[in-house]
Amino acid sequence: MGKVLAVIVAATVAAGLSANAAAQQKLVVAGYGGSFEDIMRKDIFPPFAKQHGVELDYVAGNSTNTVARLQAQKSNQQIDVAIIDDGPMYQAIALGFCAPITGLPADDIYSTARYKDDKAVAIGIVATGIMYNKKVFDEKKWAAPTSWKDLKDPKYKKQLVVPPLNNTYGLHALVEYAREGGGSEKKIDAGFTTFKNEVGPNVLVYEPSPGKMTELFSSGQAVISVWGSGRAKAFADTGFPVGFVYPQEGAYALLSSVCPIAKASPNPVAQAFVQYLVTPEVQQKLASAYGYGPVNKKAKIEDDPRVPLPIGKRAADLIVIDWDTVNQNRDDWNKRWTREIER
Q1: 3-state SS string over 287-298?
Q2: What is the pTM of this model?
Q3: Radius of gyration of the chain (CA)
Q4: SS3 for 131?
Q5: Beta strand 252-260 pairing with 224-228
Q6: Tens digits of residue pLDDT in 299-334
Q7: Which residues form the signal peptide (predicted)?
Q8: Considering the chain, what is the average pLDDT of its residues?
Q9: Which of 306, 137, 134, 129 has its CA nearest to residue 234?
Q10: Same domain, 283 and 331
Q11: Cβ pair 203, 157 in contact under 8 A
Q12: C-alpha to C-alpha distance for 188 and 170, rounded to whole angstroms
């Protein structure tokens, strides 16, 4: 009887331990939705989950949504790892949400991909440029766009889509038009004026959702947009006739970045997952599947003839905006944008 009881007790303890292990071994990752989420779930998560015996939960949303979630959960963080754009990442770091990353292979990571005190690291370089429907352009005998000025051309009336200002692509466009008008991040008025009077009349919708963006192109309502090289490549991979241009004035750099979330009891696998994302193998997957320019020097990738990747000279020539100034003013700009542009 004692032996049976001992077996039952041992089994119960084992079940309890395995239940606890299962409860602990869950990693909550917040990141972008759409095709990026698909790639994470299909190509990136499974090998890591298998190696570490961990279950991965994915919380999809744009970067500003993720930072808002971190703020809302401040006293009890649910997220273990956050993948967000560089601008909101600077905010997340300033708000104390990011823990320093340990074990980064410093010599292998490009210096442009590293953040101060290793509070975050880029997992891919994206170029913000102009995406267009090659088939429609060929049918209408339109020349491919070459310049940011082309978005003002009246022939695109109600066929242009621009992400709103709380999206990095939309922000890059505003800064570009400010610079074109003799301003800058510190003197933004010209950007608002250009959007209001010259670009705005062509805009069908200011669309933040990647899924809706591809729908608008697929349905033929949109033929040209401001978008990122990664999104454009993922769209081209579906067979859509995508054209993507690095404008002659310069395309803008967006660093898709990651940080482990600072919390009283950090998830033991969070650091390992961040390190995993910058390995050559994962960097190669993100480049081929999503069009990211790699941040690890050892990643071997081939360019894509349909959507040229931000590598080599193209990556070196990308314009980096003044995030310190932008983040100080962004709330005011968002309110002004709602008031003046997206009325």
Answers
A1: HHHHCCECCECC
A2: 0.83
A3: 22
A4: strand
A5: unpaired
A6: 999 999 899 999 988 998 999 999 989 999 999 999
A7: 1-21
A8: 92
A9: 306
A10: no
A11: no
A12: 14
